[in-house]
Amino acid sequence: MKNSIKIFIPNETTANSVGANSMYQVISKLINDDHIEIIRNGSWGAFWLEPFIEIETDGIRRGASYRNEELSDLNTIEEFFLDFETRNPFDINEIDFIKKQHRIVFSRIGHDDPLNIEYYKNSKGYQSLLTALEIGPQKTINRIKESGLTGRGGAAFPTGIKMQTVFDQDSSVKYLACNADEGDGGTFSDRLIMESDPFALIEGMVIAAYAVGASKGYIYLRSEYPLAKDFLIRAIDIALDNNYLGNNIQNSDFNFDIELRIGAGSYVCGEETAMMESIEGRRGLVRSKPPLPAINGLFGKPTLINNVVTLATIPALLLDDQSDFSQIGSNKSIGTMPFQLSGNINHGGLIETRFDISLNEIVKDFGYGTKSGEPIHAIQIGGPLGIYLSSSMLDTSLTIESLQELKGSVGHGGIIVFDDSVDMAEQAKFAMEFCVKESCGKCTPCRIGSVRGVEIIERLQKNKTSKDDAALLHDLCETLEATSLCAMGGMTPNPIHSIIEFFPNELIEK
Amino acid sequence: MSINSRNIIKPFIKEKGGLMPALHALQEHLGFISKDDIAELAIAFNYSQAEVIDVITFYDDFRLAPIGKNIIKICQAEACQSQNCKQLLGDLTSYFGLEIDETSDDSKITLKEVFCLGNCAIGPSVMINDTVIGEATAEKIIDHLKNDDVQKI
């Protein structure tokens, strides 16, 4: 009898964007032997290697990068195997990019077909849900409080405390809303969970809903993620078929359903109150807080809102070895953070690690420097509302606290590298232009202030030494910060402040 | 409103906040939201027509007139900026002779800009209909449009 052979070809947006799907088409046509099986796995998140194709024989799994390769001249599967061997295949778990990470939340991505529920169960999946159902809601919330988990969306609010607030509300109807409107430029960790480990999100949602007493959950997914939509639809169906969703989940008296809602191209709908408006079928205008969504949220009911990564982290906190997570880091920066390295970088991808890692380690040890080979000039951290750091600040630690000291935030963990061709005045202008484009329009400072901001920066681009415009920009930023209803207007000045402070003479000359 | 549209809307009427999914479903079938559909949606969801138009016009994805069969979205967010996405946008607008948000006379192409496709590690990125293309160049995009799975140009 022949030994079986498994060929892993990822089915994930980035891998497909550089040809994984076409390679699957070619290779699957060559197979005429039932001892060879193709598995469309998730991506390992080492995106510079994609399409990264692996072959497993006799329990040994090795892979090779097929970036910029065509396979169309192959005639037989044997030719493919011979070609594969010429590419010096290796075990991906042996490369530094993966070895140096501390993958807890992303421990499963890349290994198998993301919709293979048997694989999910055999790799600790659904154990935590059973634990939660056994220990009950309050003890589940206690475990999450003790873990030190904070929201991975931007505000870094303690997840357990938010859950306690929803739990404490006396209401027969409560909701859970998963924010999957991952809109920050340079971020893709939510997408990677949804495409490459969707059951982790579903399990996290069921546990969270059970803990706070919600019977219905929404996933608000941005429309720019069609493959994530496909995976979620199928994963929800499979979870229903296996009684991990629906009525009497795992023979308990807990009922919970998930409805997938698709956004329509609005960044501000990632702001939690605008997201609720959108789910309710209206324009995505932000609401003023209070009331907090935890008290008066979706359809006027107490609502737990978390993003994808936060919810997908919850199962890891209820495992016996949860201390793995909680013993990493200090203060608010507890556990691991999935940083997403992108832009002008050689080795971009998903890096799950402790917070207390220097920018230098991320961009040099993991990223291998700029793709262009030119010097690094700026690094944007935390999305459009985050800050730009200069190349002299590479020893900055990426903890929540250390970025707060620089008036920035970890945000959703995006790290974008720019080489020395970047024009920082243009980046400052873009911050305001983005706010013009995406402002919901409800409050004046954001709606009109952003347009004024573009105008002032355009003048500064012509005359960097204008003291009047420098003062006006300063006042405008102060107004946006102090009087905007939500973080869109309130934090749009962050990148601009950082450019003025860390890139002297590039926007304003003193 | 055609019977077809009415059938498309029907499953969403009883859903809480069903207007957004109804708009998505309508647009997927018909390509845009027509005046007749707005009137029917207003009745179905007990909104004023003004409120329906309010929702449609707030979101980039919804449209009140048909656009091209192939929608080409060129990412202009920060990670792609570091990979010269402005140059790519210029190359594509001049190749097709179209501005952003413009549709070709033969209705085959509409160019749009988008802010982040989540494909940031290998930018610049472009989305053609539902397909994302990484390390995009004008040549790659034009080649892709000759494939079978798009409306050939």
Report what the structure shows.
The complex is a heterodimer of chains A (510) and B (153). Chain A has helices at residues 13-17, 20-30, 77-85, 96-99, 117-122, 127-135, 137-147, 159-168, 189-196, 198-212, 226-241, 272-279, 308-317, 323-326, 359-366, 400-405, 424-438, 444-447, 449-462, 467-483, 487-491, 493-502; strands at 5-8, 36-39, 52-57, 60-65, 175-180, 216-221, 257-262, 303-307, 329-330, 333-334, 336-343, 349-354, 376-381, 387-390, 414-419. By secondary structure, chain A is α/β, with parallel strands linked by helices. In chain A, the strands form four sheets. Chain A has a five-stranded mixed sheet with strand order 12-11-15-13-14. A four-stranded mixed sheet of chain A has the order 2-1-3-4, with helices on one face. Chain A has a four-stranded parallel sheet with strand order 7-6-5-8, sandwiched between helices. In chain A, strand 6, helix 11 (226-241) and strand 7 (257-262) form a beta-alpha-beta unit. The N and C termini of chain A lie far apart (78 Å). The mean pLDDT of chain A is 97. Chain B has two domains: 3-58; 70-144, 3-Layer(aba) Sandwich (Glutaredoxin), CATH 3.40.30.10. Chain B has seven helices and four strands. With 153 residues, chain B is an alpha+beta fold. Chain B has a four-stranded mixed sheet with strand order 2-1-3-4, covered by helices on one side. At the A-B interface, helix 1, strand 11, strand 15 and helix 17 of A face helix 2, helix 4, helix 5 and strand 4 of B.
